[in-house]
Automatic annotation (TrEMBL):
NCBIfam families: PRK07857.1. GO terms for molecular function: chorismate mutase activity. GO terms for biological process: chorismate metabolic process. InterPro entries: Chorismate_II_sf, CM_dom_sf, CM_II_prokaryot. It comes from the Bacteria. Pfam families: CM_2. Residues 17-105 form the Chorismate mutase domain. This is Chorismate mutase.
């Protein structure tokens, strides 16, 4: 678990605010979410790299296309068809995590 907690900005939060203040409040929440998403992606990439490394140590294929297909379906089931683009970007980031680990290690 990453420990991030979120609350959604509600209409009531903005009732007393100017549009400028409302936008600033919403953007502040967006900025928090971007940091949290990037942290989660970093953690995911480390875990994915560890799985890939372990499979290589077992002389198995580093990648698993069946598993990647299930990951893509998870994103599209939540986000709709555009989720496929996000899934692809996430998988690309995580496939690269092994290379980065090697350079750093
Ligand atoms: C992490 C794994 O290895 C690779 C990376 C994946 C991912 O980042 O989601 C998925 C499948 C594999 O190609 C895994 O098999 O779960």
């Amino acid at each position: 678990m990453s420990g991030h907690t979120f609350r959604t900005a509600s209409a009531a939060d903005g009732d007393q605010l100017s549009n400028e203040a409302r936008i600033a409040m919403l953007r502040s929440r967006i900025d928090d979410l971007d940091v949290a998403v990037a942290d989660l992606l970093s953690e995911r990439a480390q875990l994915s790299g560890a799985v890939q490394q372990t499979r290589l140590a077992d002389r198995a294929a580093r990648l698993d296309t069946g598993r990647e297909h299930r990951v893509r379906r998870r994103y599209t089931s939540v986000l709709g068809p555009r989720g496929a683009d996000i899934a692809e970007a996430v998988l690309t980031l995580c496939r690269g995590s092994l290379g980065r680990d090697r350079k750093e290690g």
